[in-house]
Amino acid sequence: MADYFEQTVVQQTIPTADMTPLERLLLSRIFECERDGDGWYFFAEQSPSTMIFATRAELDAALVSSPDIASAAHLYVTEQLAAAEADATEMDLDLSGTSWEFFFQDIVKRSTTLAYVSVVAAFTCSKMRPDGFGGMATLITRDAIVGKSTTDLLADFLAEPDSTVARRRKRKPRIRQSRPHQSERRAGTRASPEAERERAAGLAHRPLSESPGMSEYVVKIGFWLRAYDGFTVEADTDAQAIEKAKAAAKAAMVSGIHPEHIDVEERRQGVIAFIDRVAADGRRAVAEDVEFDDDRIHGSPTS
Fold first, then answer.
1. Are residues 93 and 213 in the same domain?
2. What is the pTM of this model?
3. Which of 22, 31, 30 minimizes the C-alpha distance to 106?
4. N or C: which end of the chain has fewer CB within 10 A?
5. Collapsing DSSP states into helix, strand and coil, what is residue 135?
6. Containing structural domain, residue 257
7. CA angle, corner 215, sides to 209 and 221, nearest 5?
8. How far is Cα 195 from Cα 253, in angstroms, rounded to an integer?
């Protein structure tokens, strides 16, 4: 099994005076943090959290002492409390409906010392998976939040018409066929936007044959993988723990972060996502969503 991580650092120390108590509470649960002079250093050794725990008393106290009622943190927590049961004393806050970037932007807007906040993330994996490594940089200013991943950078390089990469591509380079990114591993669906850009760029892969009378075809398959994730809940009784686990599991299912484990040995419901023929001027689509002999669940497709 492979473990995927999104190790993240906020490069600036965030002054305590620039944060509302509510923002400080939320950011300290989303990230790990350390005191740094008159401010706080935020980071995530594994990944930023999208589900955090707080008591209603903590949230109520932070709201009362946070005067910026128009901030993203204030609006989101107020909405979450309104939707919770009236007698709930503990809250599991699903942050997938908002973003910590908005919290930092509000801090920059009111700060007299911060012109921006920059956040750098490294995507890593416990095994040398081709889809397990990369990174992203995010710049947060008063007026904008912009970011770019390593995938975006590669797409930019390939899109530059005068670049060395583009000139070499015209000479049909031989590039090792990569495995599908995990976002493409869904049966019956087309490839991810990254793969579509790759197709549009007309990249050639290693020829299947050097015979002059044969054409080269690029084949991409998709399949389901079983993933595992984990979390902790606090409860007074076993029954309450089960209900809290259900709620947290629902939130985990819609989370965009990497799960703890992905079982790459048990591939299910495979389908050929597309077959392209490589031509001198690019690639031409031949077929999409092609069933093959055995998808390991339903047996051989009928002809």
1. no
2. 0.55
3. 22
4. C
5. strand
6. 179-303
7. 80
8. 24
